[in-house]
Write a structure and sequence with these properties.
homodimer, 351 residues, alpha/beta, Isopropylmalate Dehydrogenase, 10-stranded mixed β-sheet, 11 helices, 12 strands, globular, binds 3-isopropylmalic acid
């Protein structure tokens, strides 16, 4: 590979800052390996919406679809009515590019402070469905604003959508050491969707005899994330439960500032998209205090997805080295003061 | 008041054991105050279903509706197909008796071990909607078992249902010291339901100028429960988000074995129902190791609801005394060994 062609959506709030550090790291690691990095910035998010009323046009989508991958910072701003940027931009990207696998690893770097007294070893990955469930926008209101208003939200689950996601999750589990897959749902209440998910895991599981499986209700899963996160290896779950679990997982492993994610279209029909789990954090935007590790971790997932595994490993190694330095400082009673650019400097130096 | 008339549903797994301890405590505290306790046991749950195929008949409902309150242990058994007991018994009770307020206090007793390194002061209450949302059973499947299966689940939210619940939550908040109400939802994705919930909180909030409000997405709320639970005073939320949050809340405050709940019909048109947040825990049923504190805490909520406040205070005091003893032992390095009957003994003795 001589070049990779990446669409860059910095987005809102801290998005552009953390993305810039991920790009610096990408430039550093790729130029060492003689790979050209083509970066095409896309102006999407609150600024553009205020200026033009546009979130994501068909032309934007057509242009974006021509790249190898999309690196995204964060989307969302309090100045824009709720849901517009999330649904018409972020979710539209996930749906239009059929990002049915939302991959969210949770790893606690040794020594990183956790709110848990005894976190144990946290090293699991959530395989979240990305194109169905309650995220379809399949609801509505009648008699809005009256005493007789009814608002509905519909969770749509298809055999097609669940099967391909569950199969992917089994593949992920089979390639890991512990080879354990946990389905998280709420099948005692959501009986129709729960039944489909359970049957699918049972069926596809027959093709993966090396993978052991179990099941947890979403409420029980939120308990175990706090009391025994080490029990998890791979979690497969729907769009909303995955959203909830991965934020809690981010919190226990050291903060969502560290949590990376990939929105994958595994077949490559569309570019996959890589973004931190965290949001746009408008309150700290521009202060150079956001931790870019989640963005840099998302870069690692991107490099891996593009098959540039050695570069991915190099960045991951540099991140681990840097996190070990933080842990050493913390152990010495000197909490590491994150600056966005400082972390970027440290990772680039470690490369 | 000379007598109270309570329907007792021990239910499945550890349900009967923990309920028995709550009843012992009730007998002790009420007889001291010259109040008669009428107990009518109802055989509902897995045993009855296996024996008769019945979960909850119209006759059961009619009989239950004649009591002042219902004390419930736990419902659910792995020998019964998922959803049958939960939906046709537990949820049917909540829906038939219009238990629209599901009240779930989270209090961490001083010194009780928490999985959090620094839990701070945990003293909040979740006001969960109990008769709407994704719990309506309003979904279905088409082409079940084929490659074209579609399974849906519909969250139904009505102005009527949301308003009465939100009003109740404001009343709870106004009566507390901090007077702070947090709405938890996911309005950036569930725009129709989220919009209804937000507008309702804004509208009803005008009647409660002393109460401050804020908003969190469900994913952010699961983070703050781990990183800063002390920030919460009253949380108001829908049925599913409430289910998830209260289990996580139970975990951080010392375990769901301590978490009590009330299913209220505040107007008294139907008997309210009091039950631990925990499930039936079939794995430890009959071993006398389940902690009955959640069941006894549910009794406190019941006594309060029935207006027998002094008895409620006495039991709460006895529970606090007992929990302080546990904390003392723990501080001395001797972890308190819970036995179901032993905890009942201790509380009765403290009365
Ligand atoms: C911003 C929001 C729509 C999004 C989601 O709910 O998926 C975010 O929380 C995430 O997890 O990526
Ligand atoms: C058993 C189940 C149906 C129930 C619920 O989801 O409400 C339980 O988890 C609870 O929280 O009381």
């Amino acid at each position: 590979m001589n070049a990779i062609d990446v669409a860059v959506i910095g987005g809102d709030g801290i998005g552009p800052e953390v993305t810039e550090q991920a790009l610096r790291v990408a430039r550093t690691v790729l130029s060492k390996r003689g790979i050209e990095l083509k970066e095409t910035p896309y102006d999407l998010g609150a600024r553009r919406w205020h200026a033009t009323g546009q979130t994501l046009t068909d032309d934007d989508l057509a242009a974006l679809s021509g790249h190898d991958a999309i690196l995204l910072g964060a989307i969302g701003d309090p100045s824009v009515p709720s849901g517009i940027l999330e649904r018409d931009l972020l979710l539209r990207l996930r749906f239009a590019f059929d990002h049915y696998v939302n991959l969210r690893p949770s790893i606690r770097y040794p020594g990183v402070p956790s709110p848990l007294a005894d976190p144990g070893e946290i090293d699991f990955i959530v395989v979240r469905e990305g194109t169905e469930g309650l995220y379809c926008g399949n609801g509505g209101s009648v008699r809005r604003g009256t005493a007789h208003e009814i608002a509905t939200e519909v969770s749509v689950n298809t055999a097609y959508g669940v099967r391909r996601l569950v199969r992917y999750a089994f593949e992920v589990a089979a390639a890991r050491e512990r080879k354990h897959l946990t389905l998280v749902h709420k099948h005692n209440v959501l009986v129709n969707a729960g039944d489909l998910w359970r049957r699918t895991v049972a069926e596809i599981g027959e093709e993966f005899p090396s993978v052991s499986t179990d099941y947890l209700h979403i409420d029980a899963a939120t308990i175990f994330l706090v009391t025994d996160p080490a029990r998890f290896d791979v979690i497969v779950t729907d769009n909303l439960f995955g959203d909830i679990l991965t934020d809690e997982a981010g919190a226990i492993s050291g903060g969502v500032g560290l949590a990376a994610s990939a929105n994958l279209n595994p077949e490559g029909a569309f570019p996959s998209m890589f973004e931190p789990v965290h949001g746009s954090a408008p309150d700290i935007a521009g202060t150079n205090t956001a931790d870019p590790i989640a963005a840099i971790g998302s870069l690692v997932l991107m490099l891996n997805h593009l098959g540039i595994r050695e570069a991915a490993n190099d960045v991951q190694q540099a991140v681990s080295t840097h996190m070990a330095q933080r842990a050493e400082l913390a152990a010495a009673g000197i909490p590491y003061e994150v600056t966005t650019s400082g972390v970027g400097d440290a990772i680039c130096a470690a490369l």
